[in-house]
TrEMBL record:
<feature type="domain" description="Nucleoside phosphorylase">
    <location>
        <begin position="14"/>
        <end position="231"/>
    </location>
</feature>
<comment type="similarity">
    <text>Belongs to the PNP/MTAP phosphorylase family. MTAP subfamily.</text>
</comment>
<feature type="site" description="Important for substrate specificity">
    <location>
        <position position="222"/>
    </location>
</feature>
<keyword id="KW-0808">Transferase</keyword>
<dbReference type="InterPro" id="IPR035994">
    <property type="entry name" value="Nucleoside_phosphorylase_sf"/>
</dbReference>
<feature type="site" description="Important for substrate specificity">
    <location>
        <position position="167"/>
    </location>
</feature>
<feature type="binding site">
    <location>
        <position position="185"/>
    </location>
    <ligand>
        <name>substrate</name>
    </ligand>
</feature>
<feature type="binding site">
    <location>
        <position position="186"/>
    </location>
    <ligand>
        <name>phosphate</name>
    </ligand>
</feature>
<dbReference type="GO" id="GO:0017061">
    <property type="term" value="F:S-methyl-5-thioadenosine phosphorylase activity"/>
</dbReference>
<protein>
    <recommendedName>
        <fullName>S-methyl-5'-thioadenosine phosphorylase</fullName>
        <ecNumber>2.4.2.28</ecNumber>
    </recommendedName>
</protein>
<dbReference type="InterPro" id="IPR010044">
    <property type="entry name" value="MTAP"/>
</dbReference>
<dbReference type="Pfam" id="PF01048">
    <property type="entry name" value="PNP_UDP_1"/>
</dbReference>
<keyword id="KW-0660">Purine salvage</keyword>
<feature type="binding site">
    <location>
        <begin position="61"/>
        <end position="62"/>
    </location>
    <ligand>
        <name>phosphate</name>
    </ligand>
</feature>
<keyword id="KW-0328">Glycosyltransferase</keyword>
<comment type="pathway">
    <text>Amino-acid biosynthesis; L-methionine biosynthesis via salvage pathway; S-methyl-5-thio-alpha-D-ribose 1-phosphate from S-methyl-5'-thioadenosine (phosphorylase route): step 1/1.</text>
</comment>
<feature type="binding site">
    <location>
        <begin position="209"/>
        <end position="211"/>
    </location>
    <ligand>
        <name>substrate</name>
    </ligand>
</feature>
Amino acid sequence: MTAMSAREPARADVAVIGGSGFYSFFDEDAAEVTIDTPYGNPSAPITVGDVEGRRVAFLPRHGARHEFAPHTIPYRANLWALRTLGARQVFAPCAAGSLTPDLGPGSMVVPDQLVDRTSGRTQTFFDGGGVHIQFADPYCSDLRKAAARPGTVEGGVLVVVEGPRFSTRAESVWFARQGWTLVNMTGHPEAALARELEMCYATIALVTDLDAGIEAGAGVRAVDVFAEFQRNLGSLKTLVRSAIAAAPEGPCEACRVHEGVTLPIELP
């Protein structure tokens, strides 16, 4: 792997942010890039390589050795660094618990909606200036279509909890009764920050477990979640590569949300 600084001409137009257990993406011929941002360092050095004819930047969300818990991930630094490299499209694979018995472990879901149940996370780049982004549809429809390959489940609601604990049985039952589909700890503020940077963004959720209130038993254990993710990691990477190949080039108009707005900061 070749190392380079952000001053050298490393560029990418697509980014992949890997979730729990998804710590590398390229087999070879990747360059490692270190980028400083106004929000600190990203979770790990970014690797840049070619995938399906596209120039792709990969960043492990939790760090190269899972150093960051969901509530401590430097979300702003991660998205800022990827945009600095030129990425305007982001695929965000992640682990998720299922809130319906119809979606068992190993299912891959491309959600179309998000519910934020986090607390205390910095979730914007804009602390002033009256900037309010359009977020009714939190995921880019173009990237969702690209990720909805044969065998995936298209659509669903991802509820994002603060973590790092898993849900109580009562919370899980409540989420399911709302009609929500999946539960996860990292989908927010990542999606909102991507929209603020006018980056197309789509989540690909790998179901690792039935959440605590959906089935009888001891509840969700981290060791089982990681094991299930590893069992399906090869298939998930194949799906991400297929999504990259199917994605249109360039950001879509719907995700360019700052037209006519004077921003309080300059985007990279």
